[in-house]
């Protein structure tokens, strides 16, 4: 339940990398082409490893799920409300 409300902020580098990946994907590039291009430009994964195709795919998938989760309306139900009056002295 709380995972619907949890938003893990991305670092500036993650935002920049995702922006580049999404831009290249919109232009019709596949994950392998994106991976090779960014690696040739000197980009590394967030953990400092070479960017592989599976990393690009994972970032795209995670971003898609994140957007879907943030756009989803949470289901809110109120089960019971109890009002108690205490005696003031």
Give a nutshell description of this structure:
This protein is mostly helical and 89 residues long. It has helices at residues 12-26, 31-40, 53-71. The protein has 3 helices and no strands.
Topology (SSEs and partners):
Layout: H1 12-26, H2 31-40, H3 53-71
Helix pairs in contact: 2-3
Strand proportion, as a percent range, falls in under 5%
Shape: elongated
What is the count of β-strands?
0
Instruction: State the secondary-structure class.
Output: mainly alpha
The radius of gyration over CA amounts to: 21 Å
What is the count of DSSP helices, taking H or I runs of 4+ residues?
3
What is the domain total for the residues?
A: 1
Share of helix, binned: 40-55%
Order of helices and strands: HHH
The end-to-end distance, rounded to whole angstroms, is 42 Å
Mean pLDDT: 87
Low-confidence stretches: none
Question: Can you summarize the main beta sheet?
Answer: none
Q: What would your notes on this structure say?
A:
This protein has 89 residues and is an all-alpha fold. The chain has one domain. It is built from three helices and no strands. α2 (31-40) packs across α3.
């Amino acid at each position: 339940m709380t995972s619907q409300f949890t938003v893990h902020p991305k670092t500036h580098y993650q935002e920049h990398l995702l922006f580049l990946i999404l831009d290249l994907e919109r232009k019709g590039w596949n994950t392998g082409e994106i991976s090779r291009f960014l690696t040739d430009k000197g980009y590394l994964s967030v953990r400092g490893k070479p960017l592989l195709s599976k990393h690009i795919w994972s970032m795209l998938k995670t971003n898609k799920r994140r957007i879907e989760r943030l756009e989803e309306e949470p289901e809110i139900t109120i089960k019971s409300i109890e009002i108690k009056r205490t005696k003031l002295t």
